[in-house]
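Lab notebook: predicted structure, single chain.

Context: the supervisor wants predicted structures on file for every construct in the current expression panel, including those that have not yet been purified. This is the next one on the list. No modifications to the sequence; it matches the entry in the shared construct table.
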Amino acid sequence: MQPTTIAAADEPDRGVRGALKSATRAAHDRVDQAFGAFDLADAADYRDFLAAHHAVIPGVERSLTMSRVGRVLPDWNDRRRGEALAADLDDLGLPRAAPDGPIVVVEPARALGWLYVLEGSRLGASVLAGRLLANPDEQCRRASRYLRHGRGGGLWPSFLSVLEASKLSHVEFDAALAGALELFALFEAAAVAALRNSAAHPDQ
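Prediction complete. Output recorded below exactly as produced.
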């Protein structure tokens, strides 16, 4: 089965991006493995896939907004995908649970680590949107706003420009790395929880 991760795809390593990619490789691989259990050509799996992302995305985006991440990434509001994800859930008749946990205000360097994971996920999302076309459920195929968000907008390259221009100190890089590892762990936990819930309620 092809993995259904939406984490960053392989590209030549360089600069801050290359250092983050190398340091987060194991965490990235675990997310790949966890989301690899979802088959987007299957209606139930696609619903579980979206539910897993909804367990992470709204809370993280709210925290970044409250952290005034627009000072780091001026087009932040155009990058937010929570509304697109919520619309997909509505189309599929799935509940939208309130974001788990409190809003966390993070410093700019840690926010860059979160953004590295969020923005890198767009590369895989584009591939997954193509796989979703094999789903026989028309309702699922139409509910693809989240996977298609920002397509063609050059959002990943423009984020990399911001990341490389950040000129992080060693301390700031450590904070960015901690943020990236934190978010990879949240996605992994959400995938595992969704799979566990699906196994416990196979008829849902």
